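Co-fold these.
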Amino acid sequence: MLEFVLFVMIIVVGTAGELCLGRAMRETGELERFRPGAAAGLLWRALRVKWIWIGIAMMTLAFFSLLLLLSFEDVSFVVPVSALSYFVGALGGMFFLGERVNRQRWMGIFLVCIGVTLVLIAK
Amino acid sequence: MNSRLHLKTYILIAIMVVAGPIGNLLIAKAMRQVGEVKLWPLSMLLPTFERVFGSLTIWLGIASLITFIVAYMLALSLADYSYVQPAAALGYGVVAVLGYFVLHESISPLRWAGIALICFGVAFIRNTHPRTTENPN
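Predicted complex below.
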């Protein structure tokens, strides 16, 4: 049961944390010019958006869940975690960020999932 | 379509797929050099921290991972999450290519097949518009 909870935490909370970063960056604005100053200014402004802190908290929680799970499970659980996170990420992009994931992008995400699974089981 | 948006997004994704795996490799290497991490009894805590954070490798790893997360955030300012996240899987290809050419590791056919599928998948995603939402500003 604890394994399952940690498993879900890593996939759902970890991906949700990244989605929050995406939301924060979208609220902050676009990187207009490709200069270190412009990038630093954008990141500085992003720190004032609440979503960035929610995202960091969730990613931290997922990271410690990963460490805990690693302490009593062998690393094979990384395979389904990595593959599922792309699906969860695309769903989150659609429903949380309002992105339009068309059939072509779904096809790409599906291929990436299978590819990542093969890479990880081949190790 | 805005080609500058595409170019900036590609450059940031390229930084992510190089910096992320290199950071992970360096941290893994540093932790292997350290050996078993003992946090208990508490008297072991300080020596363990000194050993972990005393190595240059771990700091290079941390710097790479910071580069990765900064590039990730900047990429997300330009493109969709559902575009950037799967594209970052190209990092698996970078790891294999580095392993093959730099460390002369053997890469199994199954692993190359997986990398080929990731590349096909990213090619599909690349054909979609990087940003499908409106900029609130």
